[in-house]
Design a protein that fits this description.
The complex is a heterodimer of chains A (235) and B (397). Chain A has a single domain, classed as 3-Layer(aba) Sandwich (Rossmann fold). In chain A, 31% of the residues lie in helices and 26% in strands. Chain A is built from seven helices and ten strands. A six-stranded mixed β-sheet of chain A has the order 6-7-8-3-9-10, with helices on both faces. In chain A, strand 7, helix 6 and strand 8 form a beta-alpha-beta unit. Chain A is globular. Chain B is an alpha+beta fold and 397 residues long. Chain B has two domains: 185 residues, no CATH class; 191 residues, no CATH class. In chain B, strand 7 and strand 8 form a beta hairpin. The longest helix of chain B is centred in the first third of the chain and has 39 residues. Classes of the chains: A alpha/beta (235), B alpha+beta (397). Chains A and B meet through helix 2 of A and helix 1, helix 10, helix 11 and helix 13 of B. The complex binds adenosine-5'-diphosphate and magnesium ion. The site of magnesium ion (MG) has 2 residues of chain A, from helix 1. Chain A: One of its GO terms (cellular component) is membrane protein complex. Chain A: This is ABC transporter ATP-binding protein. Chain A: Keywords: ATP-binding, Nucleotide-binding, Transport.
Chain lengths: 235, 397
């Protein structure tokens, strides 16, 4: 076990999330999880195990019913909706399975939109977007629109958009789920490169193959963490 | 560490709102059309009535508003007239410029030929006219010539515009004669319509001397026209009755024809109001169309809302985005409608030879109305978008 002395990026303590119904669904049933800065973590589990619920809570898109959620040391439970929005604007980078790129908008502007809600000037947003696109290997696709890009390239644009604000961590929801295996592998390789560069990445996946490639796997089942394993770093 | 805030620049708010419209241009144009129709109707209604008023004002400016007419009161039974010397009395008043007069020749009618039954009357009055009449009332000759001192002694007639139509006289080359008071009179000219003295339009005007010599005219004027110094017009107006008829001044009627013209221009107010109300209804329907479009847009774009919340948008940012989109949509219709209404006004004014007038307040009003309609139409959909939980917004796809 690695023990990080730095303040953890994510710290969940005994988090519960129940959806009302008959009977109510215990989507998260006492989850405790700590992710240190610089980690590359897979949260893996079968469908219905609570991964999306956990993603929403990690991303501050949803609130826990009970337990403590700290992002960058801040107690999320005590923050207002506006403060949570600010946290997402500055500290969290989302990558979605369906990319969610704006159609008809160039890769550059899609990436620049990652800074839209920081109040930065359009010039600066674009400048940083161009740099980040280069970082994900798409310097030559700056002015392409999503429909002119392959699925893998689209997901890399989405990763660049998540990355452009220099967030504390990247939250990727099934980032390879909509991709063929080659494109998926390229996206995973990119995440590894970002990890090597010091970026904290949390990948949510149902795919054990994807999880196995990452240095840490948190297995979730029926809203509980079943195991938390570290594998040997890839060479 | 002081927490950085989530912030969307005002210009980015507009840009984001605009991008929503640009994504579906046809839908935007169609739903803006309703607003455009309403605004176009309102702008055109106001523009056309303003152009018509401007036309009257221009006419008044060129005709002058300083003409007064004096006539014997209507209380008499039969033909009333003023004393023959009254024209000179008026001319002697201070602040009075040009003076002229006509005198209706009693019991005298004019016909196209001598074969028409004299019991069959028409609306044409036969009047003796002073030769300075045209200049005083601002009348112009449409064809032929006006009476002068030489012609005035002969059986020669100049017809008002309506009188010429009624008699069917089109030629003024001296070959056409009309049967007037039992004599043949040669038609020397036809006048244009006279806005400040419309009674002349249905008159047959003959010389003062020939009226006396051939038709037993006693030389009593029935209407005196005078131009008066604008500044002294009220004073002169008060003085005129006792000047022209010292015996019974209370029976003298003094009027200012330009007032009647100006009043006429104001009478279409009720119609304008009605048409404006119709335009308002069209605007309301257009607003409902915009609201409908926005409700659909919000439903369709749940995942976009979710993405924006994930990128750090606050509820207020989302609300402003959709509110802005709605206002822009309405503004699109407003601008289109203003252009359309302006074009309709210009076309209508041109077809009538009117000046083009479109008051600025109409455009400002149209802009204001559009903003209000857009904001009202967008308020509910925007609030709905802002209230959507980010998770629900993202999980629908
Ligand atoms: N909005 C919701 N309302 C009710 N039940 C829900 C809702 N979202 C998820 N669930 C339930 O919670 C459990 C966990 O769901 P989820 O977090 O989506 O799992 P996963 O992403 O691993 O498939 C499932 O049983 C699911 O049916
Ligand atoms: Mg899921």
């Amino acid at each position: 076990m690695t023990v990080s002395t730095a303040q953890p990026v994510v710290r969940l303590r005994d988090v519960h999330r129940r959806y009302p119904g008959r009977p109510p669904v215990r989507a998260l049933d006492g989850v405790s999880l700590t992710v240190a800065a610089g980690e590359l973590v897979a949260i893996v589990g079968p469908s219905g195990s609570g991964k999306s619920t956990l993603l929403n809570i990690l991303g501050t898109l949803d609130r826990a019913d009970a337990g403590e959620v700290r992002i960058d040391g801040q107690d999320v439970g005590s923050l207002s909706d506006r403060q949570l929005s600010a946290l997402r604007a500055h500290r969290i980078g989302f990558v979605f399975q369906q990319f969610f790129l704006s159609p008809g908008v160039t890769a550059l502007d899609n990436v620049a939109d990652g800074l839209l809600y920081t109040g930065m000037s359009p010039r600066e947003r674009r400048r940083r977007a161009a740099r980040t696109l280069a970082r994900v290997g798409l310097a030559d696709r700056t002015h392409h629109r999503p429909n002119e890009l392959s699925g893998g390239q689209r997901q890399r644009v989405a990763v660049a958009r998540a990355l452009v604000g220099r967030p504390s961590f990247l939250l990727a929801d099934e980032p390879t789920g909509a991709l063929d295996s080659a494109s998926g592998a390229a996206v995973l390789k990119l995440l590894h490169e970002l990890h090597d560069g010091g970026t904290t990445v949390i990948v949510i996946t149902h795919d054990h193959g994807v999880a196995a490639e990452l240095p840490r796997q948190v297995h979730i089942l029926d809203g509980r963490i079943e195991s938390d394993e570290y594998s040997l770093e890839r060479s | 560490m002081s927490a950085p805030r989530s912030r969307l620049r005002p210009r980015d708010t507009v840009r984001v709102a605009f991008s929503g419209l640009r994504a579906r241009p046809l839908r935007a144009v169609l739903s803006a059309l309703g607003i455009a129709v309403g605004i176009a109707a309102m702008v055109a209604v106001v523009g056309i009535s303003a152009s018509s008023r401007e036309q009257v004002h221009q006419q008044l400016r060129s005709l002058g508003t300083n003409l007064l007419t004096v006539a014997p009161g209507q209380s008499f039974v039969g033909e009333a007239s003023l004393p023959p010397e009254s024209v000179d009395m008026v001319a002697r008043l201070d602040d009075v410029g040009a003076v002229s007069a006509v005198g209706v020749v009693p019991d005298t009618a004019v016909y196209r030929t001598d074969e028409i039954d004299p019991n069959q009357t028409n609306a044409i009055a036969v009047s003796a006219a002073r030769t300075d009449l045209l200049d005083t009332v601002g009348a112009t000759v449409a064809s032929g010539r006006w009476l002068d001192d030489a012609l005035g002694a002969f059986p020669v007639v100049v017809l008002g515009a309506d009188a010429a139509d009624l008699l069917g006289v089109a030629r003024t080359d001296g070959d056409v004669q009309v049967w007037l008071g039992g004599e043949w009179f040669t038609v020397a000219g036809v006048l244009d319509p006279v806005p400040l003295a419309p009674e002349l339009d249905s008159s047959a005007l003959i010389g003062w001397p020939v009226a006396a010599s051939l038709l037993d005219f006693d030389g009593s004027p029935t209407t005196i026209y005078q131009r008066v110094d604008e500044a002294a017009i009220d004073d002169v107006r008060a003085l005129l009755p006792s000047t022209v008829d010292p015996a019974t001044p209370e029976e003298v009627a003094v009027s200012r024809p330009s007032d009647a013209l100006a009043a006429q221009a104001a009478t279409d107010e009720t119609l304008t109001t009605l048409l404006l109300a119709l335009g308002g209804v069209a605007l309301l329907v257009g607003g409902i169309g915009v609201a409908n479009t926005m409700v659909i847009a919000v439903l369709e774009r749940r995942s976009e809302v979710g993405l924006r919340r994930a990128l750090g948008a606050t509820r207020a940012h989302i609300r402003r985005q959709f509110l802005g989109e709605s206002v822009l949509l309405a503004a699109l219709g407003g601008v289109g409608g203003a252009v359309l209404g302006g074009a309709a006004t210009a076309a209508f004014a041109t077809s009538r030879d009117w000046p083009f007038a479109l008051p600025v307040w109409v455009l400002a009003g149209a802009a204001g109305a559009t903003m209000v309609v857009g904001a009202l139409a967008g308020a509910y959909p925007a609030a709905r978008a802002a209230r959507m939980p980010p998770t629900a917004a993202l999980s629908t796809v």
